[in-house]
């Protein structure tokens, strides 16, 4: 058994880590899978049954759900997979005489919830099932607490990664009156620790690689003084790194935005009119203040060419 304090584990760990960084990226996830199977096998090969059983259930349920259009049948499939996954977890957590010697894998509760979340997203139509057994390939990091390593084992995209780059055309109008004027709000409130951590990482990465960076936010009619205080924290961080933060919540009128006509009913998101005004202002500001290369007809930017032709202007 490779206990976390055993001589075998302490000896093998640096070798495993060294090989991980020497291997090509495309086989890293398979390497992690094999290493983890070996690790769990040291506790008894039956321990692997738990994780692989849930992985297979999640994979099969996802494929079946993706191929069924009937709402009633989809609901039955989802509930059946949910029951099986929870039953597996409860069975091994509570234990029976036959399996009393099996040590449940570290992080199995988290992994079970992750598989359920994956199946649920497919049931709700939020994502498509991955036929490449990605649900099983999530196994290597079920006990890993560090989010930075997750990109080795999951896909970056589901469906069409280039589809409008997240933009959704909305021409409906939601009238927002009595929008809070936050121009004079000067107090600062802290932002989420992880948000600040990664904001700083992005800025530092760009500056280290001589990449110009400008921060901005889109005008938002639902802005509150408390939210603006957090935006002021972003402005404070930007000043610390000597970069610009263009706060459009404070200065929405300067770009000609009118919350009586330029917002949709989707929690204050800008509609087509508002998005056009904001986008044109950003384009004009960047063009006037920076030397931007023209990427039209350049190799590697074909997706943007396609999107630009399909967008309304």
TrEMBL record:
The chain crosses the membrane at residues 7-23, 76-96, 102-123. Keywords: Membrane, Transmembrane, Transmembrane helix. The keyword Transmembrane applies. This is SGNH/GDSL hydrolase family protein. It comes from Butyrivibrio fibrisolvens.
């Amino acid at each position: 058994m490779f206990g976390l304090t055993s001589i075998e584990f302490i000896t093998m760990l640096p070798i495993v880590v060294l090989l991980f960084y020497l291997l090509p990226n495309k086989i890293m996830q398979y390497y992690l899978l094999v290493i983890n199977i070996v690790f769990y096998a040291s506790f008894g090969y039956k321990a692997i049954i738990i994780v692989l059983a849930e992985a297979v259930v999640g994979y099969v349920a996802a494929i079946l759900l993706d191929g069924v259009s009937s709402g009633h049948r989809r609901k039955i499939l989802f509930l059946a997979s949910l029951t099986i996954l929870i039953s597996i977890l409860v069975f091994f957590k509570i234990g029976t005489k036959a399996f009393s010697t099996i040590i449940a894998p570290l992080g199995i509760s988290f992994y079970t919830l992750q598989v359920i979340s994956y199946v649920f997203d497919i049931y709700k139509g939020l994502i498509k099932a991955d036929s490449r057994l990605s649900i099983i390939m999530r196994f290597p990091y079920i006990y890993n607490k560090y989010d930075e390593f997750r990109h080795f084992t999951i896909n970056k995209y589901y469906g069409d990664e280039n589809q409008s780059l997240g933009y959704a055309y909305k021409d409906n109008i939601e009238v927002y009156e009595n929008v809070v004027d936050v121009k004079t709000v000067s107090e600062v409130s802290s932002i989420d620790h992880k948000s600040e951590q990664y904001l700083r990482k992005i800025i530092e990465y760009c500056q280290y690689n001589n990449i110009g960076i400008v921060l901005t936010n889109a005008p938002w009619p639902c802005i509150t003084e408390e939210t603006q205080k957090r935006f002021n924290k972003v402005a404070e961080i930007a000043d610390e790194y000597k970069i610009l933060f263009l706060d459009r919540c404070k200065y929405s009128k300067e770009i000609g935005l009118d919350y009586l006509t330029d917002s949709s009913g989707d929690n204050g998101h800008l509609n087509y009119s508002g998005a056009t005004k904001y986008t044109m202002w950003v384009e004009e500001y960047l063009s006037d203040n920076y030397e931007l290369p023209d990427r039209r007809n350049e190799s590697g930017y074909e997706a943007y060419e396609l999107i630009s032709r399909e967008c309304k202007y």
